[in-house]
Design brief:
Number of strands: 3
Shape: globular
Structural class: alpha/beta
Radius of gyration: 15 Å
Number of helices: 4
Largest sheet: 3 strands, parallel
Distance between the termini: 36 Å
Amino acid sequence: NVLLAEAGVPYDIVYEMEEVNEEWDDVDLCLVIGANDTVNCAAEDDPTCEIAGMPVLRVWLASKVVVFKRSLGVGYAGLDNPVFYKDNTEMLLGDAKVNLDEMQAAVKSA
């Protein structure tokens, strides 16, 4: 929350992870931008992994997940992320800002 405050994001529009995690079954599309460990389902699914028990955003429960990352590289914990290989996930590799700008332009012109 400190980083959000420094970026000028109003606190009243920020949700706690627990609040968001209750809503994933109703989410049609989730855009994950640059995250890895914080959306890694292994934290909940694999009790032997290094991040077992770490709170994560359960993005994999959304109907569709699009992950924007520069590469398939691992996150800070050094773990592969099974979410990236789930049937409901698409990976969009490259510069996220460029890709999002292109998507926004396409939507505006549609």
